[in-house]
Design a protein that fits this description.
366 residues; alpha+beta; DNA Polymerase III, Chain A, domain 2; 3 domains; nine-stranded antiparallel β-sheet; eight-stranded antiparallel β-sheet; DNA replication; Beta sliding clamp
Length: 366
Amino acid sequence: MKFTVSQSSLMKALTVVSKGMGTNSTLPILSGIYIRAQEGTLEFQTNNLTISIRHLIPANVEEEGETVVSGKVVTNIVKALADAAVTFEGTDRTLQISCEKSTFRLNTLSPTDWSAFPELEPDKTIELPSALLSQMVDMVYRVTSRETSRPILQGILLTVEDNTIRLVATDSFRLAVCDSSVESEAGEKFRAIVGGTVFHDVLTMPSLTDTIQIGTADSQIVFTFGTTTFVSRRIEGNFPDYKQLLPASCGTAVGIDAAEFSAALKRVSVIALANASVRFDVDPDASFMRLSARSPEQGESSEALPVEVEGQGLSIALNYHYVFDCVNAVAGSNELRLELQGPTQPGIFKCNGPVNYLYLLMPVRL
């Protein structure tokens, strides 16, 4: 095997497939990257038994062949090389990498031990704009659970129906829902639960194109864009019925300037080190909302914000870390709406725009 490729193109390819490398596996082959040179094309593959990634790039191939090399080692080498042509020459058990005056000789693994890439025919597919989908995933991704005991809560529910795309995530303490308009064929419906980390990783890949095709096949979910194919296990089960958590009306609605609210919350929460609770006191007569925090060790803090209030006054305490996740999700928006039912009922933040956003948060004890 012998081929030459630019360092920048090679580095991009390795970055794409690195998400599928095994990190703590006892099988060395799962920490490797499979490379095949054939007919002017380089094919890169990784597989950690949960995720399989394949990516193709053009190259000057002088001799066809295949090999498996340590993903971490080859990535570190290519990252350190100059932006110039890189030549690979492989034999049965070694791979020589040359770039300008640098030469490396690596031990390799047998490609016959490599598992074939899963060739799947999705039974249902949908094509979506990548930029919009990426924005929406960023808005709900942090709400997915990190607990492995309930895998369904580690996923994001994706639905497309009636020209509306919707993403939903929850960790049982909070809920994030965002939706937007998207062009789809008449009567087209799509539904899948995608691992939050997988969804985020796919949409941050440097090879991402303007559109991405998502398909479901048996227990797998397949992402296809450009010359990249990303296959992951699908999360099976019934996603929580989140709609029953959303009240039909609210007793108090507060219109908040998003930038002012974010700055005030940042100042007040400096005191809330040991206790992540921030108190919200809504006064409809004076048209303000007071944020306050108290710590036995540090002291107290408070700040009043001018707001527009509809309904009655009330007080509620919320975890400010979770509130910041909401504020960061709608960064750049002008106004937030906070809807409240009572001190022991969930608070709901809403933001409308090209992407509509709803964030439900369970209160903490006052």
